[in-house]
Design a protein that fits this description.
228 residues, eight-stranded mixed β-sheet, 8 strands, alpha/beta, 24% strand
C-alpha cells in the first residue's frame, strides 16, 4: 500500500490535513472516510485507514482538530467540547469530495466509518452530507437525531456498540435503531456482549479482541456490499 500523510483539505478558506492510504496494485477501489475519536487524528486512526487499504479500499482520515491531538482524557474532552459540529461535517464533506475526485475511486459514493465522537458524526453525516454510500457509526454518541433528520438518510447504516458501554448505552443504541426503523432506513445494529466503549481501539485497556475482530469483519463485508 501507499500512504500520504499530508493531504490538504480546504474548509471555508481554512486548511486542515488528511491521511490517505491506498491499496497496492491497480484500482479502481471504493473510498471510505475514517472519522476520528475524540483523541484526534492519531496513530490509531491512521492504522484504521491502513487496515482498510489492506482490504482494498482507499481510506482518508481527515483531521477535525486542525493539527491538535490529545493523549489524556481531560485534553481530549476539551478538544471535543470545542468542536463545532457544522465545521466537522464540512471537513468530512471535504474528505468525501477529495476521494470522489480521485480517478481510482469507484463508485463515486463514499463510505463513512466513525468511532466514539466520530461515530456520532457518521450518523449525522449519513443524513446531511452529499455523495455518501454507506455509514458505520461505532459506539457513536453526539447530538440526538430528529425523526426528520433520520428520514433524510438514504444509505444503509451498520451501527456497532458494546454492551458494557456506559457512555453510549445499549438503550441509546436501541433508541437509535428504532429511529432508523421508523424512518425506513436500511440498518443493522450489533451490540457486543461484555464490550466497553471504544472496544475496537487496540491502544486502550478496554480493547476487546474477540468483539473487535468480529466487528471489523462485519464492517469490511458491509462496505464491500454497499459500495459496489
Amino acid at each position: 500500500m501507499t500512504r500520504d500523510p499530508d493531504i490538504e483539505l480546504l474548509v471555508n478558506g481554512r486548511a486542515t490535513r488528511g491521511y490517505l492510504s491506498r491499496p497496492a496494485g491497480d484500482g479502481p477501489w471504493p473510498g471510505v472516510v475514517v472519522i476520528q475519536e475524540w483523541w484526534g487524528l492519531n496513530d490509531h486512526m491512521r492504522d484504521v485507514a491502513d487496515r482498510l487499504a489492506g482490504e482494498d479500499f482507499i481510506a482518508l482520515a481527515p483531521d477535525l482538530y486542525y493539527g491538535q491531538t490529545a493523549s489524556e482524557p481531560d485534553e481530549a474532552r476539551k478538544l471535543a467540547m470545542a468542536l463545532e459540529y457544522p465545521d466537522a461535517l464540512s471537513v468530512i464533506q471535504a474528505a468525501v469530495d477529495h476521494l470522489i475526485a480521485l480517478d481510482d475511486v469507484a463508485p463515486k459514493r463514499i463510505g463513512l466509518v466513525g468511532f466514539c465522537m466520530g461515530g456520532g458524526l457518521a450518523w449525522h453525516g449519513a443524513a446531511q452530507l452529499e455523495r455518501i454510500g454507506a455509514s458505520v457509526p461505532c459506539y457513536g454518541g453526539g447530538p440526538e437525531m430528529s425523526p426528520d433528520e433520520a428520514a433524510r438518510i438514504a444509505v444503509p447504516v451498520l451501527a456497532i456498540y458494546g454492551e458494557e458501554d456506559r457512555g453510549v448505552s445499549p438503550e441509546v443504541a436501541r433508541q437509535r435503531a428504532a429511529l432508523m426503523d421508523a424512518a425506513g432506513v436500511t440498518n443493522e445494529m450489533v451490540i457486543y456482549p461484555g464490550a466497553q466503549h471504544a472496544f475496537m481501539n487496540d491502544r486502550r485497556p478496554v480493547y476487546n479482541s474477540e468483539a473487535a475482530e468480529d466487528a471489523w469483519r462485519r464492517i469490511v463485508a458491509f462496505f464491500r456490499e454497499a459500495l459496489r
